[in-house]
Write a structure and sequence with these properties.
It is a single chain. The protein has 379 residues and is mainly alpha-helical. It has one domain. The protein is built from 19 helices and no strands. Helix 5 runs parallel beside helix 7 and helix 5 crosses helix 19. The longest helix is centred in the middle third of the chain and has 32 residues. It is globular and about 55 Å long.
Amino acid sequence: MHDPPDVRSVGNDERSLSPPLRPAARARRVWQKIHWGKIAIFLASLFLFILALTLMKDGARGLAPLVRDSFRVTNPVNSLGFGWLFAYVVMSGSPVAAAALTFFDAGVITQLETFTMITGSRMGASFIVLFIGFIYVLRGRNRATSLSMGLTSLTVTWTTYLAGLAIGVAILQTGMLDHVQLRSGAALNSVVDAIFDPIASLLASFLPGWGLFVVGMGIILLSFNLFDRCLPEMTIKDSQVGHVSRMVYRPWVMFLLGASVTLISMSVSVSLGILVPLSNRGFIRRENVIPYIMGANITTFIDTLFAAVLLDNPAAFTVVLTEMISIAIVSLIILALFYRWFEHYSLRLVAVITANDRNLALFMVVLFVTPIVLLLLPF
């Protein structure tokens, strides 16, 4: 008697003997896999982003009395607090960084004040994740679990940005990066002007100057929201993280991963959001997240760098490039020389803050009072 054929092997043989897809069929299959809806959302977000910059640029001059006289932003310390508080109000850092560039382009603030305002915007934005965790605590959730990720992100961000602030000021004052420029080009400028100037002129015909800026601010918030929606949803299965879980214990690997994911997505919310499923599955712990956040904090300026290019302002481009380089210098020094020490004390600070309600409440008060004090300092 002969053994019956293996059904699985027969199926495999049939598949192996099946003729390859014709070029037309392959092209049709690729065409069907394209997410045209996400592409349309991306193009819409890009259109709105450029329109918002145009409106904010035209309306920034109308806000000069408000910024200088009402908010009294007259020095780099004031602009640091102003950017910090501004990020609290809009619940995001990137729109505030773009606003700082338009203020600078309109001559409302100086180059150094622009640098500190952008730094303040990122420090304020790091509070958003913590604030959401704080809401969960008020609703009765576990304090350490709800706040640990936000506090770790905030601690790493504040440490690197404050150290980078000193380095960035030195770079700007010496002018060592002034010769490094990237301009949008005459062709791109003419296209942008032809498309968006008529829209800005139409809105300017019935809106005051400051109104253009406010409308532009609302549009840029919408553009960032749309851009987040057009990004593909990353999962552990899709990203194959399960096969390289051991690599997350290497700080340099996590640093490069955080920088790469944020560079590709141009969204810190997306890159940090990937950490949630990884943490729930036990792939990473809080200490593994620290270098990841460092890398993300460098490439998060890509959208701001793009805004500087669109404004066609070489000095604005220098400001954003200085931000990226200064944060990179600080992060690389920490990783190369005393990462374990930095990791230990960062996690210890998080543990102290979440130890009891008094410590947490005091820390939250400091978060709100500090930018106000910076904004009111007279020197």
